[in-house]
Amino acid sequence: MKEFTTIKDAVQAEIVEKKSKFIANLFYVESVKQAEKIIQETKKKYHDARHNCVAYRIVEDTNIVEKASDDGEPSGTAGMPMLHILKSNNLANVLVIVTRYFGGILLGTGGLIRAYSNSLIEAIKKSEKQEKCLGNEIELTIEYPEFENFKYYCKKNKINIININYSENIVCNIELEESKKEKLLEDYREKHINIAKINSLSIKYINKVY
Known about the structure:
Layout: E1 3-7, E2 11-17, E3 20-28, H1 32-45, E4 51-60, E5 63-69, H2 79-88, E6 94-101, H3 108-126, E7 129-142, H4 147-156, E8 160-166, E9 170-177, H5 178-189, E10 197-207
Antiparallel strand pairs: 1-7, 2-3, 3-6, 4-5, 4-6, 7-9, 7-10, 8-9
Helix pairs in contact: 2-3
C-alpha cells in the first residue's frame, strides 16, 4: 500500500435506534498490538453494554491487517459492514469499536447493519483526516548560513522538516516522498542546494504534504 487516509485524533459519535444506543469510538492506531490493547480497555470501560463490535485496518510492513468482530450480534451485521466502510474510505491505521446498549426492541438484520454503519459514518464525519504515503526520513547536516535557504527549498518542494538540532552545524531530519528524494539528491550533487552531509535513515509512512 503506497497511500492511505487516517485520522489525527480519536473521536466519538453516538446514535439511538429504537431505544438502542450505539456509541462509536474511532481511534488512530499504529499496530495490531496497540489496537488489541485498546479493544480490551474499551470492553472494560463499557462492561455493562450488550455488545462491543470491532473493525480495524492497520498497515504493518506495508501490508494491511484487517479484523472484524460482531461480538455476539448476528453474523455479518456489525464488524464486516464497518470494515467495508473503512475500506471504501481508504482508511487505515484506524480502529472502530461500536458499543451497543440494548433498548429492548429487536432491530433485525437490516436495522443492525444500518445502525452500526451509521454510527461509524458519524464518527468519520467528525474526524480530522490525514493523508499518508510511503516516503523517507533523511538526516541532513547544514551550515548555519545556508539554513534559511534550505527551509525555503523545503517549503517550495513540499518537504517536511520534523526535527532540528543546533550544534556546530545544524542537523535536521526531514520526511519526503520517494520522488522528491531523487530530486533532493540530484540538487545536492549538482550543488543547487548547499548541504554538508546527507544520511538516509529509513523508509516509512509519512504525512503527505500538499
